[in-house]
Amino acid sequence: MTATDTHCPYCALQCGMTLTPERKLEPRDFPVNKGGLCAKGFTAAELLDHPDRLLTPLVRTEPGDRTSPFREATWDETFDLIVEQIEKAQRTYGRDSAGAFGGGGLTNEKAYALGKFVRVSLKSASIDYNGRFCMSSAATAANRTLGIDRGLPFPLEDVARARTVLLAGANPADAMPPSMQYLDAGREDGARHIVVDPRRTATAAGAHLHLQPLPGTDLALANGLLHIAIREGYVDEDYVRDRTTGFDAVRSACNSYWPDRVERMTGVPENRLRETVRLIATQGPAMILTARGAEQHSNGTDTAQAYLNLALALGLVGRPFSGYGTITGQGNGQGGREHGQKADQLPGYRKLDDPAARAHVASVWGVDPDELPGPGKSAYEMLTDDALRVLIVLASNIAVSAPHSNHIRRKLRALDFLVVSDIFLSETAELADVVLPTAQWAEEEGTMTNLEGRVIRRRRALPPPPGVRTDLEMLAELSRRLGREESSDPRTVFEELRRASAGGIADYAGITYERIEKEDGVFWPCPTEDHPGTPRLFEHSFPTKDGRAAMRAVVHRDPAEMPDQAFPYVLTTGRNMQQYQSGNQTRRVRTLTAALPEARAEIHPDLARRHGIADGDLVELRSRRGTAVLRARLTDGIRPDTVFAPFHWPGANALTDPALDPHSRMPAFKACAVAITRHERGAET
Ligand SMILES: Nc1nc2c(c(=O)[nH]1)N[C@H]1C(S)=C(S)[C@@H](COP(=O)(O)OP(=O)(O)OC[C@H]3O[C@@H](n4cnc5c(=O)[nH]c(N)nc54)[C@H](O)[C@@H]3O)O[C@H]1N2
Ligand SMILES: Nc1nc2c(c(=O)[nH]1)N[C@H]1C(S)=C(S)[C@@H](COP(=O)(O)OP(=O)(O)OC[C@H]3O[C@@H](n4cnc5c(=O)[nH]c(N)nc54)[C@H](O)[C@@H]3O)O[C@H]1N2
Ligand code: SF4
Ligand SMILES: [Mo]
Which first-to-last residue range defines the signal peptide (predicted)? Predict the structure, then answer.
């Protein structure tokens, strides 16, 4: 093995790193991380030969009885079993009874192949993926207003040049530590940062202003900021006239968001609201960035919209070192939402219900457009629908990460047949009939699209362990047995993806593995091989029908579940620096788990005192859906009416509310009502 330049397996920053022959990871001077890595990236190589690695397919000793132990099986036997179950379900209940659930960690090639596998080999409408739980609200708002959903419409380095940055529900100090170099550089140069977060996170602690709203009230906050901007004459009237539509309705919708009313709704003092507007409107280039804290609500789409409206009204979008962006989360969270894993989508960010899109993609796939299924159901709706009988899960640990996880587990148990492909036996795999071992990042080729829309290359440094197949090989073999030949070679799949995406919104037609290598990644859209790619969007127009951004009036709605006497506090959930997502990977990394061995609920000392809770006690959190026991971490950095829990361990999602946003179908991960008590066993530890 020689040293291989590649990228981190985890988040959307996709830091450049080099895997040495000794299997050590060294940071690389790639444009996003410039030599930085976080603790997760540094330790990622530990998973390559981890003793927990899945190395053979597993099936149940008693077929059909998922309480019986697993036994090792051959691939041939396993494929036979899967195909038999798919055919049986589809014969009995129809095509859509078999489906798949994908992940934003999959390479573009795998995400594309999975979408095609379900539509063409299974001929089923049943597919969605974990990005529904991640990016869907901001994506929906961006699509309907800007005509395109590329998380950051500018390279990350532009953030260092903005004079003011408002971060709403984003904690990059923990979620993407190397990205802080751009915020730090800006600050050193006099830029002002405003963080909107119910907790004083590491990101908030370094900011000029910290606004600490009650979870679920960002829409009121953003409308309140726009109200002030309108009153104080900060609206860029020329920009609004020339480049947008819909502002009159937005203006009237903001009329009633008087600062004192917004203070009452959000808990953010009026003077801070005014100071925020002054900073965004008067200091030069300004950016508004949202992440999951603002978006993962049952009104998440309209909340993202409210921040976007503010950016448009101030004339920020498309101006140098200015604009609105959303910080994408998973390794390929961006590319994973472009090429057909989404229930309503075809490659190139095309819509499944658009006849021209169907005709184009069907011709690339060599099928009749009429054979393609229509749009399917969104993640939570598909997973909880009794019509789904056979499910293949790739790259997601929904038993831990989906909302109302007790119900999700019940539904997974009730399936006729569950197949899970993973590197390790996840909590979801533990519920499966069949577990398929798969290759991981350093063992296969592929492309990823990072948070900036930069398409990069993940290179194969070593072969998978003997007997382990890549997801592409697994899907190709399943397809073959269902009667269709598909390639399992990443390059061949990428060439097909280029053709399928050509002419679409997310156009990859001009991107090649060679160009990616030479150019430190290529930004989509990139329609031809001599096109330079598009690092910055919206300079002259928007890819909407009339070339203008379509602003939309939005009004505040309370979270689907509000605190009451029985459940008096708001629970919000999110991330810790040392763990990643459902934890199925990082909980197995020694140094990370030594640094943070268990879930800690963040509780304000006043709230703790009321319930006789001391720092380090075990506490029981209860919601209408379930209970979870976590260790208390007392901190005056959180609002006294709010509790924060990480979702990297089973527990938090037993509590969360699956109330879905009507537009994006995003669940309310960031606000539900809970009660808290000191857990009796807490005294012993
Ligand atoms: N260490 C680590 N890094 C990660 C990940 C990980 O699991 N671990 N996951 C990656 C992925 S997939 C994603 S999507 C990103 C997510 O990155 P972020 O969105 O930055 O992370 P979160 O912790 O989910 O939420 C951010 C903040 O929102 C705050 N918040 C909660 N409720 C509200 C609210 O109602 N309004 C506002 N304004 N803020 C609120 C929380 O207190 C939290 O500090 O991180 C990526 N990076
Ligand atoms: N309460 C609460 N819940 C949340 C969130 C929250 O903020 N609060 N955030 C939501 C968000 S933003 C997200 S993105 C989701 C993430 O939640 P999940 O979808 O569960 O994400 P991961 O834990 O990354 O799961 C990926 C799984 O795939 C495996 N894997 C990695 N690479 C591959 C591969 O190439 N192929 C295959 N087959 N498997 C692979 C990993 O081992 C892991 O088991 O959680 C959501 N859930
Ligand atoms: S910030 Fe994200 S991409 Fe970079 S090393 Fe950490 S987990 Fe990996
Ligand atoms: Mo995410």
Answer: none
Torsion angle, CA of 32/38/42/46, rounded to 10 degrees? -120
In contact, 100 and 391? CB cutoff 8 Å: yes
Which tokens sit at 495? 């060439």
Q: Within this chain, do residues 167 and 247 fall inside the same structural domain, yes or no?
A: yes
Residues with CB under 6 A from ligand 2: 103-106, 130, 133-134, 292, 296, 329-330, 394-397, 400-401, 421-424, 426, 438, 440, 471, 573-574, 581-582, 584-585, 647, 652-653, 656, 669
pLDDT at residue 480 greater than cutoff 60: yes
Residue 553 counted as domain residue? no
pLDDT at 684: 45
Q: How far is CA 119 from the centre of its chain?
A: 23
Closest by alpha carbon to 151, among 267, 259, 14, 298?
A: 14
Q: What is the mean pLDDT of the chain?
A: 97
Choose the final residue of a domain: 326, 346, 363: 326
Please indicate, yes or no, whether residues 27 and 67 belong to a single structural domain of this protein: no
Residues in contact with ligand 1 by the CB-under-6-Å rule are 11, 134, 168-171, 174-176, 196-199, 201, 213, 215-216, 218, 291-294, 329-330, 572, 574-575, 577, 579-581, 644, 670-671
Query: Residue 1 pLDDT more than 90?
Result: no
Q: Closest ligand to 652 CA?
A: 2
Considering only CA atoms, which of 330, 377, 335, 332 is closest in space to residue 501?
A: 335
Q: How far apart are CA 337 and CA 102, in angstroms?
A: 10
Give, as residue ranges, everything with CB less than 5 Å from ion ligand 4.
134, 329
Q: Can you tell me the distance from the alpha carbon of 227 to that of 272, in angstroms, rounded to the nearest whole number? A: 14
- Tokens representing 197 are 């977060």
Q: From atom 11 of ligand 1, which residue's Cα is the shortest distance away?
A: 329
**498 located within any domain:** yes
Q: Which ligand is nearest to the CA of 202?
A: 1
Structural domain of 151: 136-326
Domain boundary at 308, 326, 344, which? 326
From 197, 200, 296, 585, mutation site for ligand 1 pocket: most ligand atoms within 8 A of C-beta: 197
Distance 531 CA to ligand 2 centre (A): 34
| Of residues 513, 648, 587, the one with CA closest to residue 50 | 587
- For residues 377 and 461, membership in a common domain is answered with yes
Nearest CA to ligand 3 atom 6: 38
Domain count, the chain: 4
Ligand 4: centre distance to CA 398 (Å):
13
CA of 170 to the centre of ligand 1 (A): 6
CATH number of 643's domain? 2.40.40.20
- At residue 387 the predicted structure's pLDDT band, cuts being 50, 70 and 90, is very high
Indicate whether 295 and 345 sit together in one domain: no
Output the CA 81–ligand 4 centroid distance in Å: 33
In a domain, 528, yes or no: no
The verdict on the CB of residue 32 being under 6 Å from ligand 3 is: no
Kind and range of the H or E element at 238? helix 237-243
Alpha carbons 229 and 133: distance in angstroms, whole number: 32
- Write out the two tokens for 534: 């598009």
Q: Give the span between the Cα atoms of 653 and 650, in whole angstroms.
A: 7
Q: What is the pLDDT of residues 568-598, one digit of tens each?
A: 999 999 999 999 999 999 999 999 999 999 9
Q: Could you report the per-residue pLDDT of 258-286, keeping only the tens digit for each?
A: 999 999 999 999 999 999 999 999 999 99
Tell whether the model's pLDDT for residue 685 goes beyond 50: no
